[in-house]
Automatic annotation (TrEMBL):
This is TetR family transcriptional regulator. GO terms for molecular function: DNA binding. Keywords: DNA-binding, Transcription, Transcription regulation. InterPro entries: Homeodomain-like_sf, HTH_TetR, Tet_transcr_reg_TetR-rel_C_sf. The keyword Transcription applies.
Length: 191
């Protein structure tokens, strides 16, 4: 069982590196098998299709993102500090991951067909991020109840836009601009 688990993780790790560096569509199963150094039967034992491997990749990316975020924010004392901290974490995360952008958005742009397992997982991961912002904004006493949903959606748009601009320009400055915009948005929305 231990060996099965480590082979599965090796396959996901190899696929992750390749999906991030060259894209999902440009990565073939044979390349993953070769670079992971596993037998074709081993890959198909764990992942009956490339799409199943893609879903596992997105799940693992979501676990990595939220796990790292919680660790980064463990000292944050209130929802406002956590909200601002998400933007700080995203900048660090993007820099550590060579500005590859958002794994979920990349999959959605490569495979826009709705209703597939892979597309559904990417949308679910994006929705989990959006809900995280909704929950944080919902805890802010400084924002009137009737403005909270609009503020949360705007914060999420700034997050996604900042992420994309960091990927395009390969620097963290756009996320810093987004973070400052969120601070100003919270100040103005609270009036």
């Amino acid at each position: 069982m231990q060996a099965d688990s480590s082979v599965r993780e090796l396959i996901i790790s190899t696929a992750t590196r390749l999906f991030l560096s060259q894209g999902y569509n440009q990565t073939g199963i044979n390349q993953i098998i070769e670079e992971a150094g596993v037998a074709k039967a081993s890959l198909y034992y764990h992942f009956p299709s490339k799409e199943d491997l893609g879903v596992a990749y997105l799940i693992k990316r979501g676990e990595k993102w939220f796990g790292g975020l919680e660790e980064f924010l463990k000292e944050a004392k209130d929802p406002r500090e956590r909200l601002i901290g998400v933007f700080e974490y995203r900048a660090v995360y993007l820099e550590q991951n060579d500005f590859t952008g958002c794994s979920y958005t990349r999959i959605l742009s490569e495979l826009p067909q709705r209703g597939t397992k892979l597309n559904n997982q990417a949308v679910a991961n994006k929705e989990r991020q959006r809900k995280y912002f909704m929950d944080l904004v919902g805890q802010l006493d400084c924002i009137p109840e009737e403005k909270k949903q609009d503020v949360a959606n705007t914060v999420f748009l700034l997050f996604d836009g900042g992420t994309l601009q960091c990927q395009v320009y390969r620097e963290t400055r756009p996320m810093e601009h987004a973070r400052k915009a969120v601070i100003e948005l919270l100040r103005c929305a609270g009036k």
